[in-house]
Amino acid sequence: MRPIRSRWVITGLTAALTWSVGVSPGFAHHSFGMYDMTKSSEIDGTVSKMEWSNPHCWLFVIVVSPDGEQTIHGFEMTSVGEMHRRGWTKTILMPGDKVKVKYHPLRDGRLDGYLMSVITPDGRVIGLAPAGQSGQGAAPPPAEPSG
Q1: For residues 56 and 138, is the Cβ–Cβ distance under 8 A?
Q2: CB atoms < 10 A from the CB of 124, how many?
Q3: Within 13 Å, how many C-alpha atoms sit on residue 60's CB side?
Q4: Distance (Å, whole) CA 58 – CA 50
Q5: Which CATH code fits 41-126?
Q6: CA 128 to chain CA mean position, Å
Q7: What is the pTM of this model?
Q8: Distance of CA 13 to CAs 2, 3, 25, 30, 69, Å?
Q9: How far is CA 33 from CA 68, 98, 106, 113, in A?
């Protein structure tokens, strides 16, 4: 009887180890350390594109400097499910829309940040995060101007 019990124990431990190794990346989460959550900035620009995908949505905005140079700012957002809960849809902003974006800037000075809210030209506020909410911490995918 002892050898059968040992096989069940070994099988159970193997299954538990396999499950824990396979599932552990799903429990991992990003740090907010790359964003300065104590500061906020605003930019005015034109929506280049919005990536509506998990694990994080992204908004890319073209900003034109006074000398006419265009730069693209990428703003990280939360997951699709959380975006829906905050009233967003994948078509709420379209390329060419004029927007004002409020965001937490990156600590290293790059143009990207964690999106707090978007204000449309008619004054409508989209996506105001709950108080105390912070960012997700993934590096933004490369931005390309629409065109």
Answers
A1: yes
A2: 9
A3: 16
A4: 6
A5: 2.40.50.140
A6: 14
A7: 0.68
A8: 17, 15, 19, 29, 60
A9: 33, 30, 9, 12
Q: Is the pLDDT of residue 15 over 60?
A: no
Q: Is the pLDDT of residue 23 over 60?
A: no
Pinpoint the alpha helices (H) of the chain.
2-27, 80-85
φ, ψ of residue 7 in degrees (nearest 5): -65, -40
User: What DSSP assignment string belongs to 8-34?
Assistant: HHHHHHHHHHHHHHHHHHHH----STT
Q: Which of 13-22, 32-41, 125-134 has the highest mean pLDDT?
A: 32-41
- Assign residue 127 a region (left: φ > 0; alpha: ψ between -120 and 50; beta: otherwise): left
Number of other residues whose CB lies within 10 A of the CB of residue 25:
7
CA 118/CA 146 separation, integer angstroms: 19
| Cα dist from 126 to 35, 87, 99, 116, whole Å | 21, 8, 10, 9
Q: Determine the 3-state secondary structure of 5 from DSSP.
A: helix
User: How confident is the model at residue 30, as a pLDDT?
Assistant: 57
